[in-house]
């Protein structure tokens, strides 16, 4: 005959087993969710926020192009990288981190040619901007460059597996910064991302800010990121950065902070005669 004490112990044991099962199921769901998020991030890439490439070469919730959605505060994982650093020390100075409530008024000539020069610690990169196909984006970069917004900013993300892109344009250097306003998507119909393409990171449709990515090799992405120019000089600089690898994983293997200290000493946009 089962005593009252034995029955109580059996009930307590059954309760404990149910609690342990629920905890195990919850833990499994968290692992599955995190794995799914990581997979989505790896495919998206960016980041204006994270933008990332989605914001996080992203990585966002579709609400903020400067914030990675997959992991609001990803914990960097150190990796062993003993390669010598080859880039120069950055010029003295700090990013302005200024923001504006609205997109700048259109001031460029959409029929003209514009050129952007990224003077980085690793070498100069020249980009031919496509004002005709991405007028809002080029106009924004023309404005931000005139405000020295990109000066002293650090490229915060490099992918070395699956795709090879360098993500820059965040004055906070975290993947969560932006100019305060959002840009409309442009030039997406049939968009492709061959080597040398410069395109906007975003956190969903029409959420571009200041973060952008440079395709070091041909990159397979859906037509979701505004392509607004092409590198004409400096692909060797990008390949040198890629060869340096990463120092800390952000979203998974081959996705993290560049080993080389890639800082823009200055960024200028000029109208070509």
Automatic annotation (TrEMBL):
<protein>
    <recommendedName>
        <fullName>Peptidyl-prolyl cis-trans isomerase</fullName>
        <ecNumber>5.2.1.8</ecNumber>
    </recommendedName>
</protein>
<dbReference type="GO" id="GO:0016853">
    <property type="term" value="F:isomerase activity"/>
</dbReference>
<keyword id="KW-0413">Isomerase</keyword>
<dbReference type="InterPro" id="IPR029000">
    <property type="entry name" value="Cyclophilin-like_dom_sf"/>
</dbReference>
<feature type="region of interest" description="Disordered">
    <location>
        <begin position="1"/>
        <end position="32"/>
    </location>
</feature>
<feature type="compositionally biased region" description="Low complexity">
    <location>
        <begin position="67"/>
        <end position="85"/>
    </location>
</feature>
<dbReference type="InterPro" id="IPR002130">
    <property type="entry name" value="Cyclophilin-type_PPIase_dom"/>
</dbReference>
<comment type="function">
    <text>PPIases accelerate the folding of proteins. It catalyzes the cis-trans isomerization of proline imidic peptide bonds in oligopeptides.</text>
</comment>
<keyword id="KW-0697">Rotamase</keyword>
<comment type="similarity">
    <text>Belongs to the cyclophilin-type PPIase family.</text>
</comment>
<keyword id="KW-0812">Transmembrane</keyword>
<keyword id="KW-0472">Membrane</keyword>
<keyword id="KW-1133">Transmembrane helix</keyword>
<dbReference type="Pfam" id="PF00160">
    <property type="entry name" value="Pro_isomerase"/>
</dbReference>
<feature type="transmembrane region" description="Helical">
    <location>
        <begin position="36"/>
        <end position="57"/>
    </location>
</feature>
<feature type="region of interest" description="Disordered">
    <location>
        <begin position="57"/>
        <end position="103"/>
    </location>
</feature>
<feature type="compositionally biased region" description="Basic and acidic residues">
    <location>
        <begin position="1"/>
        <end position="28"/>
    </location>
</feature>
<dbReference type="InterPro" id="IPR044666">
    <property type="entry name" value="Cyclophilin_A-like"/>
</dbReference>
<feature type="domain" description="PPIase cyclophilin-type">
    <location>
        <begin position="123"/>
        <end position="269"/>
    </location>
</feature>
């Amino acid at each position: 005959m089962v005593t009252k004490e034995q029955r109580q112990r059996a009930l307590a044991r059954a309760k404990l087993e149910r609690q342990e099962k629920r905890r195990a199921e919850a833990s499994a769901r968290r692992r599955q969710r995190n794995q799914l998020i990581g997979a989505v991030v790896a495919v998206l890439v960016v980041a204006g926020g994270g933008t990332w490439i989605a914001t996080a070469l992203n990585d966002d919730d579709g609400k903020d192009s400067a914030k990675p959605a997959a992991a609001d505060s990803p914990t960097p994982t150190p990796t062993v990288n003993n390669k010598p650093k080859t880039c120069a020390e950055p010029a003295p100075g700090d990013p302005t981190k200024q923001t504006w409530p609205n997109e700048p008024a259109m001031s460029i000539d959409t029929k003209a040619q514009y050129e952007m020069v990224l003077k980085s610690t690793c070498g100069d990169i020249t980009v031919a901007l496509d004002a005709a196909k991405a007028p809002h984006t080029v106009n924004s970069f023309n404005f931000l460059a005139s405000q020295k917004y990109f000066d002293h900013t650090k490229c915060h993300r490099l992918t070395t597996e699956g795709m090879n892109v360098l993500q820059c344009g965040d004055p906070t250097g975290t993947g969560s910064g932006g100019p305060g306003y959002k840009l409309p998507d442009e030039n997406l119909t049939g968009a492709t991302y061959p080597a040398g393409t410069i395109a906007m990171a975003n956190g969903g449709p029409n959420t571009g800010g200041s973060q952008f990515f440079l395709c070091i090799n041909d990159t397979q992405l859906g037509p979701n990121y505004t392509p607004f120019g092409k590198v004409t000089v400096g692909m060797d600089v990008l390949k040198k950065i890629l060869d340096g690898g990463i120092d800390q994983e952000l979203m998974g293997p081959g996705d993290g902070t560049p080993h080389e200290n890639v800082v823009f000493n200055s960024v200028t946009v000029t109208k070509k005669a």
